[in-house]
Amino acid sequence: MAKAANTIAVVNSKGGCGKTTIATSLAAWLAYEHSVALADLDLQRSASDWLALRLPDNPVIHSARVGKWPPKPPRDVDYLIIDAPAGISEKKLLELLTHSDKILVPLLPSPIDMRAGWRFLDELFKLRKASKSRCQIGLVANRAKTWTIIYRELTGFIDQFKAPYVAHLRESINYIRAAEAGLGVAELPYYKCRQDWSEWYPLVDWVKN
């Protein structure tokens, strides 16, 4: 299988947790320094719609072939970013663990999402152990309000799993503005989104290092 130098999958079995927003923003951030491909495996095809909105003067992000599983990146790509589907099967989750270098799991600070997230992470870590995969797993608190009780409960829940707490991303209108223009949050003016940029630095560092 042709494989990118670094394959990063953004995965959670529950929809609506921000997988596509994180996958597209990560691809846009990396594209300023690297050759990047984006694989849209979600049935809603939101990442593909986002790619179609990008203008020629934006850094190029290639569309990866998704006809076969796992998706194949174009040649000479440094990073393949995978926007995984909601409700992913155990078989395909195992294949992602086998073929990915790192997996990012976005989690929302709400009781329903936390319960669903716990079940998904429990399955994910059991599969990684059984398969002896070396894939690294990082957790992201998404749409987080750090001053709230539910956020503290989320971070306590995250601590149960032996995976790094990579970053927390606030709920911000900048993600909506960026998505509408086929941009990542890092491509918006710094004076408008410096707080969002600061939240992304540790996430990008974890992906790259």
CATH overall fold name: Rossmann fold
Any idea what the shape is?
A: globular
Main β-sheet, spatial strand arrangement: 3-2-4-1-5-6-7
Q: What does the main sheet amount to?
A: 7 strands, parallel
List the domain count as a whole number.
1
Q: Structural class of the secondary structure composition?
A: alpha/beta
CATH superfamily: P-loop containing nucleotide triphosphate hydrolases
Give the CATH architecture.
3-Layer(aba) Sandwich
- From the alpha carbons, calculate the radius of gyration and give it in angstroms: 16 Å
Work out the number of β strands: 7
Q: What average pLDDT do the residues reach?
A: 88
Distance between the termini: 24 Å
Residues in β-strands, percent = 15-25%
CATH class bucket: Alpha Beta
Poorly predicted tracts of residues: none
How would you explain this protein's 3D organization?
This protein is of the alpha/beta class and 209 residues long. The protein has a single domain (6-203), classed as Rossmann fold, CATH 3.40.50.300. 42% of the residues lie in helices and 17% in strands. The chain has seven helices and seven strands, in the order βαβαββαβαβαβαα. It has a seven-stranded parallel sheet with strand order 3-2-4-1-5-6-7, sandwiched between helices. Helix 3 crosses helix 4 (111-131). The longest helix has 21 residues, at 111-131. The model has no long low-confidence stretch (mean pLDDT 88).
